[in-house]
Here is the input.
Amino acid sequence: MNPEFWHKCWERNTIGFHQPSVHQFLTEQVTNLLGSEGSANAEKPNIFIPLCGKSLDMLWWAEQGNVVGSELSDIACQDFFSENQLTPEVTSEGEHQLYQFANLAIYQGDFFQLMPTQFPRFDYIYDRAALIALPPALRQQYVNHLASFIAEGTALVLINLEYPAGELEGPPFTISADLVHQLFSDFDVTEVAVRDLQGDQFASRALPVSKLTERLFLIKR
Ligand SMILES: C[S@@+](CC[C@H](N)C(=O)[O-])C[C@H]1O[C@@H](n2cnc3c(N)ncnc32)[C@H](O)[C@@H]1O
Here is the structure.
């Protein structure tokens, strides 16, 4: 998927991946993990959300701590703040535009141009519909870059999506549990929860597949 593909999705509002509410795994599973994981940060945890779109999950995470999102589309950034009745300050940060409101920041531009040295250590990284959005050719590059943000003590909260191979031309691409283990073979990978998506419904799209499963993983160094 080149940047043009995503810009067109946002221009045409073909954003079937966008969820109308906070992801169930956050409210039902991750909420319990937060207590047990704790934070090395004495104050609020720092949370990084790559390829964040205008996800409402950012609001849930902002209740837990300081959120930094990364998103290519300026439309997504503007919509996120306006649809949630927030007026961000917008400044330039190198090649990125930085949208900021209180403890919510989104770097608009290319994720691959963001460097971990720009930020304090992240306590959590949240990937919902980022890894599965990228074609196989970009996958390892994405994981390598993501890994550079995973410090000692960082927990990557990853939600994958799996359907029988060959049944759909992505995005979203199918990522099996085995592939998650393979991609993060240098890390400690724990599968926390699994659920079958009823009606093969992925956010606002019903996918033409015979089975659709989401899994929640916790990944650490
Ligand atoms: C499938 S959507 C998922 C959005 C969000 N995570 C969610 O759950 O709704 C993938 C998002 O990644 C963004 N994106 C794609 N390539 C990117 C890149 N190189 N840097 C930053 N964002 C990118 C797209 O614009 C799109 O909003």
About this structure: The chain is about 30% helix and 30% strand. Residues 6, 17-18, 51-53, 55, 70-73, 76, 110-112, 128-130, 133 surround S-adenosylmethionine (CB under 6 Å).
